[in-house]
């Protein structure tokens, strides 16, 4: 590529090469055709769209009812720390190797091909079915009532967007930092305020005796007598749920495209239209989501309940695998005599953060279904509680038995394919591919205001 091109043009025009698994273990280079047009703000909003929606607005009341305001705040705080650790680990890998498929590709490349296959399929199922969960929530919110489980699931979308980022070396680290602070603001601060206003034993909160719960955000306005404001809040919740569904379609389609490029799905899903959108992968993911939604309309809803439980565990399993992969990534990188100074972004507190995610994640994964063993044990409830884990084990073991791949050794790890070779000081960028204005000349109030806006907007 010509050296005369600007950094921005280089990123927009470059095709990222990835490794494609084939049956004879040979390596084939295949270029991506995704358009590199995402800036930092786009990446942040896509990740936030998948994170802030049903979980925050629709069932945060259940957490307050079950654990009290203090317990809910502590729980969200711990998960918030866990999420930030995952974001830092994924950010280090995605900024250095911005490819489609992201953590599924990284797991296969730096840890175990079977692990990469497992997390890719699990994550695709997570978001494909997640679209159905959002559709169900939309139908419920129309009746002013909502039902789902709280989750931070969605922040890892930042890794998937790296393959379409205009300047991934800058935008991914920026998105890692900004998304975290926005989640702290929207989740932790919101839970604090809600917990101070609504008692944990308020009858409008879900207490386990019914199947529905009102959004505590709407309840706040109702208690204040501002019915119009409550209606407006309800409309806002509806919009966020649609946005979360949109992020789900984006994530599932890109993950399916990555599976197809690795030979685990039909090649038709690698095709893109003239705008660089994997249209067939999008349509397939939407179709699966719609079919999953239909299971909630017929029968007793047992199948749909299993599917929604699958999405809950899939996020945790993905986070654990990302942390395992990051440990192997860093071990292999350093064992080959490479310097951390050459990485666009270096995750701090290695390996403490990764170990924290793995330990807490495994505790939650195995402990979340303890209620199914209380009293009379029902096989359906036990399977439903661990269906995500069961699927992950079947996928990993099945791929290991059929493909028989070996674990990736340190000296076998490829740290060249898919990296963008650029000069570090070509541009003074702000994370979106544009030149920075000289903010040092701004007055103090303007600099402070700009910093606050960069966090919340």
TrEMBL record:
UniProt cross-references to Pfam families, sorted A to Z: AA_permease (PF00324), AA_permease_2 (PF13520)
Entry keywords, A to Z: Amino-acid transport, Membrane, Transmembrane, Transmembrane helix, Transport
Localisation per UniProt entry: Membrane
Main location: membrane
Domain of life: Eukaryota
Coiled-coil boundaries: none
GO cellular component: membrane
InterPro entries: AA-permease/SLC12A_dom, AA/rel_permease1, Amino_acid_permease_CS, APC_YAT
Residue intervals of the Amino acid permease/ SLC12A domain: 146-410
Bilayer topology term: Multi-pass membrane protein
GO molecular function: amino acid transmembrane transporter activity
TM ranges: 45-65, 71-90, 179-200, 232-250, 277-298, 310-329, 349-371, 383-403
Name of this chain's protein: Amino acid permease/ SLC12A domain-containing protein
Lineage: Eukaryota, Fungi, Fungi incertae sedis, Mucoromycota, Mucoromycotina
Gene that this polypeptide is encoded by: ABSGL_10319.1 scaffold 11921
